[in-house]
Amino acid sequence: MSTKNIFSLLFIVLTAFYGYATEPDKNITIKGTVIDAETKAPLEFATVSIRNHDDQKVIDGVITDASGAFKMRVAQGIYDIKVEYISYKSITFEDRTINENTDLGVIALALNVESLNAVEIVAERTTVEIKLDKKIYNIGKDLTTAGGTVSDALNNVPSVAVDIEGNISLRGNGNVKILINGKPSAMAGFGNTNILSQLPAEAIERVEVITSPSARYDAEGTAGILNIILRQKETLGFNGSINLTLGNPDNLGFSSNINYRTEKFNIFSNIGYRYFDAPRTNYNDTRYFERTVNGSTVTPEFERITENERVSRLNRNYNANLGMEYFLSDKTSVTGSLFYRYGEDADLGINTSSRYNGGSMVEQTNRREKQDETGNNYQISLNYITKFDDSGHQLTADFQYETRNENQDNFINEDYVFTDQTYPDPFQNEIIYQTEDRKEYLIQSDYVLPIGEDSRFEAGFRGRYQNEITDYLLEQEDINTGNYVVNEAITNIFDYSENVTAFYSQYGSKFGQFSFLLGLRLENTQLKGNIDSRLTPAELQEAFGYPIDTDFDNNYLGLFPTVNFIYNLSSNEDDPEESVTLGFNRRINRPRGWYISPYPRRSSRTNVFQGNPNLRPAYSSTFDLGYLKRWDELTVTASVYYQHETASFERIQENTGQQTSDGIDIIRTIPVNLSTNKRTGGEFGILYNPAKWIRLNSSFNIFQFETEGSFNNVDYGAKNSSWFTRFSSKVTLPGAIDWQTNAYYSGARQDAQSSQKGVFVMDLAFSKEVLNDKLTISLNARDLFNSRKRRTTTTTAFFTNYEVSQWRQRQVNLSFLYRFNQPQSKRERSGQDEGPEANFDIDG
C-alpha cells in the first residue's frame, strides 16, 4: 500500500470514527466521482466538505480515492456541498436538501489558470520586502541548496554569512539571534547553530533579516535577528513532497513534507533522515619565543611544533516535526506541534605532531582521538490565537517546552613515531565522559489593538527559563599500573541557569507616506551557576593558581528602547516603489554557560578553554539607515549602520605557565569583557529579473570595527576593515534545464590577536523537471574549487601560530524531489502564510 493510500485510509477511519461517536443518526449516503474536466482523468485526494447551510458550520469531509470516488454519511438536513482540488476551480452545490441517498454523479473540475500563473511568478523569483523592522527574503527556487541544509540556504541570503565551521554572522557580526517561526526553538539547537546544518533546506519558506528589531522581539543578539519561517502549506486537501539525496563525500538523505487540511483543521509534518561523512582537516604551525619569567629568561623545550590533523565524522540524524492546527471558529485556532531529533556521531581524529629544534625534527607523535556522541532533542509547542475582528485586533498565547540530552565519550591516546630522547616519558591515555541535560520553558503572550485605520498598540510578556547540567569526568592512565584514575581537579558537575523575564509595549502609526513604530522593552536577566567539585575552594586555588567562584548568582535589569521609521517616496501606484527607513535599537549579548564555567576544558594536551564566571553581558546601541527602490524587473536595496557596544567580550590566549610532561607550554583561552567595540558599515544589494529565463542577484557588505581594551596589562586594541560579497545567477537553458551559479568572497580581517586571509567559494547546480513537472532532478557541487579554508595567523608575546582549517570539503549532491497533489506549474509557493509574527508589521 502506498504512502498516499495509508494517509487516506487513516483520515477516512478517523473521520468515520468521529462521526459515529458524535452523530449516531447519520443514515443518509452522499456519493459521487471527481474528474479533470479536460483530460477526464480521476482526481485522487480531492476534498469534499459539507456545511450546514444556515450557519456554514463544517459537518463532515472526505477525500476521493484513486478512482476519484467519494462517499459520506450525513443526517437529514439542508447543506452546502463543496468540492475542491489544488489549482482547480472549486464547485459548490448550494442549498441542497438531503433527505434520501444522493448521487451527485460525475463532478468535472476545471484548471484555475489564473492561480497557476500566480504560483509560477512567485515561485521562480527570490523577492525582498521592506517592513518597519525587517527585510523579508522569500526564498525562490535555489538549486545550489537542493539536498543541502538550512545553513547552506542561509549562506545565500544577503547580509548573512556562514563560515567554514557553521557559525552564522549578520553583517560580519557573529552575535546573531536565531528564531524558528518567530520563537527560540529546539530546531535551532538551543542557540547551537550546528543543528541548522542537519535540517533540510527545502523546509525554508522565507528568511526575515531583522537588523533593527522592534520591542516585541527578545533583546538578545547585538547583530540582530534571523527569523527562519518554515513551510506549512495552507492548501485544502492532501498534498506534500518527498525528497531523496545522494552525495559525495557520503551523504544520504530522505525527507518528506506532508500536509492535510480541511476547513476545520490542518495537519502538517516534516520527517527526515540523514547519514553523512563530513571529513575535516586542520594544520597548525606554531613557533615559540623565549620569554622572561621573574627576571629570568626561559627557553621553550621546542622552538617549533607543527600539527596535521585529519578527522572523519560519521553522522546519523533523525528528525520529525508533527503538528495540527484546529480551528475553533473562523477567528480562533489552537496549534500543537512536536519536534524530535535523534543523532549519533562517530568521529575519529588522527593528529600527527612534529617538533623541531635548530631547524631539524627531533620528535614526532601520533595522537588518536575517538569520540562517540548520542543526543536527543524534543520540543512541545502550543499556540492559541483569537482574532476579535478583521482589523487586526487579536490575542496570542504560546507555551513551549524543550529538552536536550547528550552523551559523549572520548578516548585519547598518543604514541611516539620517533624521538631523540633516550628514555622518553610515555603519554597517558585519557577517557572523557560528558553528559549534558538541558531544559527550557517559554511562556509568551502578545496583544494587538488597532486604533483607527492606521495606528496600532501592542503589549506582551515573555518568560524564558532554561537550566543546563553538565557532568564532566576525566580519567587518566596511571603509567605505572595501567589503571585509570579520576582527575579530581578537572572533574566536576556544573549546574547553570539562564532566566529572562520581559515585558514590552509599542505603538505604531501611519500618516500618508510616513510610518513609525516606537517601543520599549524591560528585561531582567539572571545568570546563576553552581559547581560541584571534588576539591575544596583552597585546593582549587592551589590547582589552578587563582581562586574559582563555584557558586554565583548575577542579575541584570535593562531597558531596551526601539525606534523605527519608514517613508514611502512613491506618491502613486504608477511610480516605482521607493522607501527610506531609519531605525535605532538597544540590544544585549548574554554569555553562554560554557563561556562562564570556570573549569578548564581541553581541546588537546597543550590547549585549554576556560570560562569566566565574572563575564558580564555586553550592551550595544545601533543606528540603521536603509533605502529600497523596486521596478518591475529590478530591486535595489542599500543601508548604512553604526553600532557601539560596551563590555564586549572576546577570547584571549595566554600562557598558563604550566607545561606538559614533555615540556610543551600549555596555552589557555579565556573570554573577557574588552571595554568597547565600534562597528560601522554599509551594504548594497541588487535583484534583477530581466526575463523569465534569467535571474541575477548580488550584494556587497563592507564594515570597519574598532576594539579598545586591555587584560592583564596587555593592550588588545585593534582596528580593522573587512568586506564580503556574493553573486548569484540563474539561467534556463534549452531543454528547460535550469543552471545556477553562486559565488561568495569574504575579505581579509583582523582582531585583537589574529589576522585572517580572504576566502572564495563557488557553488554550481543544474536542475530538470520531468514526469509532468512532478519530479525535479538536481545536481549540484558546493565549494566547487574546494577553496573554503580558513587561514589565520595569531601572534602573542610568546608564540606565533599559522593555521589552515577546512571544516567541510567539496560536496557533490544528486537530489530527487517528488511532489504530489500540488499545483501543476511551479509548486513551491512563497509568502502565502505570513505566520503569527507578520500580523504585527506596519507596512510602509
UniProtKB/TrEMBL annotation:
Q: How does it sit in the membrane?
A: Multi-pass membrane protein
Q: Does the keyword Glycoprotein apply?
A: no
In this chain the Outer membrane protein beta-barrel domain maps to 387-818
Query: What InterPro entries does its record include?
Result: Beta-barrel_TonB_sf, CarboxyPept-like_regulatory, OMP_b-brl_3, Plug_dom, Plug_dom_sf, TonB-dep_rcpt-like
Q: Where is this region: Disordered?
A: 823-844
Give the domain of life.
Bacteria
Q: Which SUPFAM superfamilies match?
A: Carboxypeptidase regulatory domain-like (SSF49464), Porins (SSF56935)
Q: In its UniProt entry, what is this protein called? A: TonB-dependent receptor
Recorded source organism is Gaetbulibacter aestuarii
UniProt lineage: Bacteria, Pseudomonadati, Bacteroidota, Flavobacteriia, Flavobacteriales
